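We examine the record.

___
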Amino acid sequence: MVIATGSKATESLDVRVGNFYPNYYKNAEQQWEGIDVEMAVALAERAGFEPNILEIPWSRALVMALQGQVDLLANVNITEERSEYLHWIGPQRYTQMSLIVTRENAALPISSLDDLVGQCKSLGLKFGIQPNVTYGDEFDERLKSDDAFRGCAEQLTGPQNDDKVLLGRLLGYFDEPLDVQAERRRNPEYGLVVHPFTAIKEPVFFGVSKVSVTTDELKRLLMAYQSMVADGSLEAIAGKWAFNTQDQ
């Protein structure tokens, strides 16, 4: 699916996108593609709206949803604060933080955090984590209180992280596997793979502004979502990106 930027109309719905492959990105023709933009546009269209694509940084998009300046967000985690100004539709799909490693390390015997520490010590390598990212209660607690665990972790600081893993300077790093899966589909020789060990798996939702979207419009979006789940439309979009919306 290719999504072009539309113009505001009576029955339009402002849909937020970012610039983060493969969730949202512009192709060579400068048209929007990606799993989250495709899902959001499909939902809007199924509900009878004309999607109006707006590229907005994430933090600003949340403020704009609070103020009623953008209608629909995709790939949103539920929090108490956000629930004050967003209705929730979903789950849209599931996201997870998995260990990204080289092909040679794809079968490393890691099925727990203790295994992870053991492999890091055995190989003399650390694993990478991203700043300001939650990896689950147990993971986050051990980063705070377990010196051995914390000593195996390295804060990632830039786009050279893939190179660090490929060059043997990191055991791997934790990230959503969607990016790696998409890269491997584009280039089968891509050197990184998704290890089976996952730190956290959780649902993400569509967020709908309580200010700008009326009760009747929300009902239309909810009915559209239910229809897309029933006929497999969301799963079909996810399948294009080698990712499942269901917690299986």
Notes: The beta strands are 12-17, 25-26, 32-33, 50-55, 72-76, 86-102, 127-129, 153-155, 172-175, 192-209. The CA atoms of residues 55 and 182 lie 22 Å apart.
